[in-house]
Design a protein that fits this description.
This protein is an all-alpha fold. It has one domain. The chain is built from 13 helices and 2 strands. It has a two-stranded antiparallel ribbon with strand order 1-2. Strand 1 and strand 2 form a beta hairpin. Helix 8 packs across helix 12. The two termini are about 25 Å apart. About 10% of the residues have low confidence.
């Protein structure tokens, strides 16, 4: 950890992000896809509101049609988001690697094509780790639920520290995923070797990964909160007008206003997300390259080999290199 220059990595990541604005497009596309769910949710929710207050015999096709249309759009859009998210996450990392290898200009189409050879391996990493994390968290909450039933709710209070412990666990898993993706892109490793190598890298540099995660995600959360404040204006106004008794019509109006307001602000927020997303991916990629390569190797114009060099931690303990 003593040899890792946080300032150099963060500064270099920002220089790459700001100079090569084509890298923003990965996050912008992901953000735009997410915004498409807003009008669909508005359509679906508006169709549900009259159903809740209307007897079943009076519900006609005109009420069910928007709901069915909304569901019919969400399913294919969700499936489409999977490859788009993989390509969108890979694009800034691949661009960072090419810039570090000496490429002056980056083109969006070439970057997208460049992600294709790595697509299935990166998708496999996301699915494998995501499924494993889902199972672990699901079992955890199931145990908490059973404990809560057996102790009449006291189990939830006793298990509260465990909820806090889940936060660094998720951050650690995310760091492993990012380093595995970098291992695939930089050193062309297989999915299993990339995960193993990423685990060794994170384990031997736990302090670097923890501090870097705090810097990245705490800083991102603060900046995102500041950017999101204007989108909360309708909610603040509704809270001021709301009395002690719940007003269903006021809440329905708030939902519609919030959705419209968010759609109006979405271009600014999507642009911000694109910049932030490119910066974060660039930081993680540079972190991998700095931890697995000596300075003179990084500056070499020759492309990286298929096998990463040996890792060294702060006490010079060498980790065996995985097979490509």
């Amino acid at each position: 950890m003593n040899n890792f220059n946080f300032g150099e990595v963060l500064t270099r990541a920002w220089q790459i992000t700001w100079k090569h604005k084509v890298l923003w497009l990965g996050g912008i596309i992901i953000g735009f896809l997410g915004v498409l769910f807003l009008p669909i949710n508005l359509l679906t929710n508006q169709s549900l509101l009259p159903i809740q207050a209307t007897p079943p015999k009076e519900i006609g096709p005109e009420m069910w049609l928007p709901l069915l249309l909304g569901v019919g759009l969400i399913i294919p859009l969700s499936l489409l988001s999977i490859p788009i998210n993989v390509i969108g996450m890979t694009l800034p990392s691949l661009g960072t690697i090419r810039v570090e290898q000496g490429t002056e200009g980056l083109e969006f189409v070439e970057l997208v094509k460049g992600t294709f050879p790595f697509f299935w391996r990166i998708l496999g990493v996301f699915l494998l780790v995501g499924l494993g994390l889902f199972v672990v968290i699901g079992v955890f909450f199931a145990c908490i639920a059973l404990l809560s039933i057996a102790t009449l709710g006291m189990g939830v209070i006793c298990a509260f520290p465990l909820f806090i412990a889940l936060i660094p666990l998720v951050i650690l898993v995310y760091a492993i995923v990012e380093q595995a993706m970098s291992a695939i892109l930089v050193d062309n490793l297989s999915m299993s070797n990339a995960l193993q190598f990423a685990w060794d890298l994170v384990r031997k540099n736990l302090g670097v990964m923890a501090l870097l995660s705090i810097i990245i995600y705490l800083g991102s959360a603060i900046v995102s909160l500041i950017i999101s404040i204007p989108m909360m204006i309708p909610m603040f106004g509704t809270i001021l007008r709301m009395g002690t008794e719940p007003d269903i019509q006021l809440m329905e109006r708030l939902f519609r206003n919030m959705t419209i307001w968010m759609l109006a602000f979405s271009p600014i927020y999507i642009l911000f997300q694109g910049i932030l997303f490119a910066f974060i991916q660039s930081v993680w990629t540079l972190t991998y390259m700095r931890l697995t390569r000596k300075p003179e190797v990084e500056k070499s114009p020759t492309p990286p080999s298929n096998v990463p060099p040996a890792l060294e931690d702060s006490d010079k303990t060498v980790i065996a290199r995985p097979n490509a």
